[in-house]
Amino acid sequence: MTKIDPKDDRILRELTRDGRVSNTELADRVGLSPSACLRRVQELERIGVIKGYRAVLDRDAMGAGFVAYITVGLSDHSKAAQEAFEKSIALATQVRECHNITGTVEYLLRVEVSDLAAYKHFHTEVLGTFPQVNAITSYIVMGSPKDERA
Predict the structure, then answer these.
(1) Cα 11 from Cα 127, distance rounded (Å)
(2) Where are the domains of the chain?
(3) Partners of 98 in beta bridges
(4) The pLDDT of residue 20
(5) Shortest CA distance to 85 belongs to which of 144, 127, 138?
(6) Model-level pTM?
(7) What architecture (CATH level 2) is domain 66-140?
(8) What gap in Å lies between CA 79 and CA 101, rounded to an integer?
(9) In CATH terms, is domain 6-46 a member of 3.40.50.10860?
(10) Residue-by-residue pLDDT tens, the chain, 150 positions
(11) Nearest 5°: phi and psi at 109?
(12) Three-state secondary structure string covering the chain
């Protein structure tokens, strides 16, 4: 595990808030010289703490503002069944996140589509056709007062 000191932590918080900030501005925000700040950012990238930079998209503006979390239980708990499910779910463009979890079900999905009709299509015609799937429970997002995903 990498030791993150308070300056690195501040750099990471600032980059999480604004990944496009210039190095000069970032250095000013965290109280370092631009060269020292750049060295730290490059080291955080090199060791894999910073995995990349992304654009945060407005899904509503893109026509995919209907969000649901779905728990999925598999009928077979074998490694082969999990691998088959994961391979199939990787092809489903509606699925923005897939997490293998503990508990009474195996997976938690974040699905983003245009509307309820598109969600019903995904639920029935995509997810419902996977032979490994035994149980599906949907949780429709009504609002997100805090969402720090980048």
Answers:
(1) 40
(2) 6-46, 66-140
(3) 109
(4) 95
(5) 127
(6) 0.82
(7) 2-Layer Sandwich (3.30)
(8) 14
(9) no
(10) 678 999 999 999 999 999 999 999 999 999 999 999 999 999 999 999 999 998 888 888 998 899 999 999 999 989 999 999 999 999 999 999 999 999 999 999 999 999 999 999 999 999 999 999 999 999 999 999 998 876
(11) -115, 145
(12) CCCCCHHHHHHHHHHHHCCCCCHHHHHHHHCCCHHHHHHHHHHHHHCCCCCCCCCCCCCCCCCCCEEEEEEEEECCCCHHHHHHHHHHHHCCCCEEEEEECCCCCCEEEEEEECCHHHHHHHHHHHHHHCCCEEEEEEEECCCCCCCCCC
Tokens of 63: 């026509």
Amino acid at 140: I
Chain-centroid distance of CA 66 in Å reads 16
